[in-house]
User: What shape does this take?
Amino acid sequence: MTAHAILTLAWLLVALYMIFIYAPSDVNQGNVYRIMYVHVSSGWTAMIAYFLVFVGSVWYVWKRSPSADDMAYASAEVGFIFCSCLLITGPLWAKPIWGIWWTWDARLTLTFVLWLLFVAYLLVRSFFINPGRAALLSAVVGIIGFVDVPIDYMAIRWWRTQHPQPVIMGGPNSGLPPSMEATLFISAGAFLCLFFYLLRQGLRLAEARREIGQLRRQLSE
Amino acid sequence: MADPNNKFLFIAYSLVWIVFMLYAWVLARRQSKLKRDLEELKSKTMLKDTPPPHES
Assistant: This one.
């Protein structure tokens, strides 16, 4: 087990302790508000993942570097997992609090679009047999799709939405009690650590796959 | 009395756990496939490098 894996596991255990034992119940929502810790952390991580997809895609289009493509691809795959968690936990929190599973407000719609962008990026990879063409076209999706991320982030600040206003870096009346805020930051840190751990695994697999491909070509020559 | 909304909390965390476990399983499968491919290539390379038998 690597140091990164041990750190991720330990951090996740601390986060779980804080979520279920340290953080108090909410006066209005009871215990169900604790979904926030995994929901918000997944959302932030998914946005960071798409930012890395964008950086890797720009770098690939500019330099045609296979490592940049690997980074964008691995980040898209792990980002898809976190974005799926975001979309799973959102309705499960919405139903008991809003009384509805889903509504097409700006934030929810743009987050769904983000998830579709991850899907589109991964589908483009699997559609093309030519690896160069797949990398280039998915990079185009990665670059164009990035437009969604800042709009999605700002949606709850710009428009009146069913989704609550931001609790972190929001207006003067926003914010969380210190114990809840600390728990949220620890949870987000744990998710980010898990994201980078999974990203590293994805990068290692991509590198190994490329080396095996090269060996195959050498053998067939 | 237990909060009836606790079931949503339980389902949310369980589903997130399942998603990550499934992804870990997918990664492990890919890794074992790559290992198999590497072993196959190694054996092919060894066969290629072995000189043909000579008549004495």
Observations:
- The longest helix of chain B spans residues 6-49.
